[in-house]
Amino acid sequence: MRTPRRFRFRRTTRMLLGGLTAAALVAGLIVTLSASAPTPQAAATYRDPHQPVEARVADLLGRMSLDDKLGQLTQAERASVNPADLTSYRIGSVLSGGGSAPTPNTPTAWADMYDRFQGAALATPLGIPMIYGVDAVHGHNNVVGATIFPHNIGLGATGNPELVERIGRATAAEVRGTGIPWNFAPCLCVARNDRWGRTYESFGEHPDLPSAMTSVISGMQGPSLADPGAVLATAKHYVGDGGTVGGVDQGDTRLSEAELRRIHLPPFRAAIERGVGSIMISFNSWNGTKLHGHRHLVTDVLKTELGFTGFVVSDWNGIDQIDGVPGLSAADVRQAVNAGVDMAMVPTEWRRFIDLLRVEVRAGRVTTARIDDAVRRILTKKFELGLFERPYADRSYAATIGSAGHRALARQAVAESQVLLKNADGILPLDPANNLIFVAGTNADDIGHQSGGWTISWQGGSGAITPGTSVLAGIRAAVDPSSTVTYDPAGHGVDSSYRVAVAVVGEGPYAEGAGDRPGAMGLSGTDLATIDRLRAAGVPVVVVLVSGRPLDIAGQLPDWQALLAAWLPGTEGDGVADVLFGAHQPTGRLPVTWLASASQLPINDGDGQTPLFPYGFGLSYPGQP
Ligand code: GLC
Known about the structure:
Helix 4 (83-89) packs parallel to helix 5 and helix 7 (161-176) packs antiparallel against helix 16. The chain starts with a helix and ends in a 45-residue tail after the last helix. The protein is globular. It contains 20 helices and 17 strands. The protein has helices at 5-36, 53-63, 66-72, 83-89, 107-122, 152-158, 161-176, 208-212, 215-221, 257-263, 266-273, 295-305, 330-339, 350-362, 368-384, 404-417, 447-451, 471-478, 525-536, 574-580; strands spanning 74-77, 93-96, 131-134, 182-183, 234-238, 252-253, 278-281, 285-286, 289-290, 311-313, 344-345, 419-423, 436-440, 484-487, 500-506, 541-546, 562-565. It folds into three domains: 10-127 and 314-379, TIM Barrel; 135-310, TIM Barrel; 418-600, Rossmann fold, CATH 3.40.50. Helix content is 35%, strand content 10%. Residues 97-98, 135, 184, 236, 315-316 line the site of alpha-D-glucopyranose.
């Protein structure tokens, strides 16, 4: 029997309502279940690149366990950690220390290594990508074949922030060519005592110069960190590393707060204004207190007063030094994190760091709020870099490594960094044609020496350590076939037939404390003997000084016809020849005051002492505007 129409309507309605009710019950069950169970990662807010970074960070933070968070605060050195450790301990960062490279040391091997670590990081429950850091302080200097630019003291001599910005961009491309998105550069130290082994890492003794050269940060980070060619820059070392007593590396900077702020703080303010993404803490103390544990300077001044919103990374085992007792202690860890260190560079002791910090957090001696602040800062940069969307090496940038364009840029920088300090009788520029030139000196034909520390290895090396053009090769390439160039490192064979002798002398490579010079500041006996041999032949001597700082040469200068400060030019030594032969005018100006005697050190502009050459000094060629 068919159901009467009105009843059919009701039944239909009933059926419909019943169906809706059932559907509503099922839907409600799904909602209930989903509310209790985590959203599948694939659909999670933090996985959605269209969501604001702040929302992604908040979502991810809310999903993280304490161990997830502690891992993000931890940075291990590549040789002291296995990829599997990144998965097990949820380590958020890996670094290459100076010279720490895969074997073979090729861009491909670097990118493969990077991807192995990254794959392991992504295998964690939340799949948070790791961030890999490296010191590319004058080009991607750990990598054989990379373009090695002049060290900062030479770039300071150029007085050209726009050029330095382009160097930052080129360096970023080469670093990305190996997959790496984070550079522990630039060093913004204000070198106040040339005895310091890191003087060459400073753009100059006056804060205005390093402040101006923060343009390199804009080059490295570009308009957006999401740009595949951008890297996260690191302003280092915060703060006062160049002002220690006696120029002792990792020593004590004894200044009033007003002086510290006047001399050493401005470059960091400038870096923050440029949006620098990370800041590294310095090893030195300030009036006896280690910076790594200095809450006032790290949190009150850097983060609160200057408004730094990136993350703070400690220096290599720098945390260990806080309590004055060797090794990493609970007190070290507690004080560093509470002072404002967000990521700990604990190359080998990363397990101990995690275990100690876990205890401190559980005991309430380090608050969850402090941990979350650190994690939030780190995750923000990882999201901004696009690491969640593009975690693996973009190998399209590998072709930029050591490219002709980058080497040409480096050559330009070398030429602009040369400072002409003496030019008696206008002996310079040299005539490239019909000339008889004798070249000598320990640094004339040595890529390692002209590159200095932080090149292929931490301390640098001697000889052909990486492809490049030595100063001698540059001279040979600059002359016409009608000229003769003879070379002997010690000057043997020179005679009066030569029109000019070019002595390329100075310092061998060094880095950090190994380069401290508490004693004499002059040339080596070998170099002095070479110059004497040249002079004894009656040949006018042009000295090219390849060094990381001014040297004590006042006593010998009267016997030299000319003096050119070449600093540490890197792989493109032909830039020195460009100035020697006039292809490029000498436009460099001293970024540091030049001592008249080692007894004057420290000597700085305006301190009332009489230098051999003042800050900002530099000659031009006759007729040069
Ligand atoms: C070094 C340096 C620092 C560098 C870090 C990682 O000790 O002080 O400039 O970035 O360790 O290599």
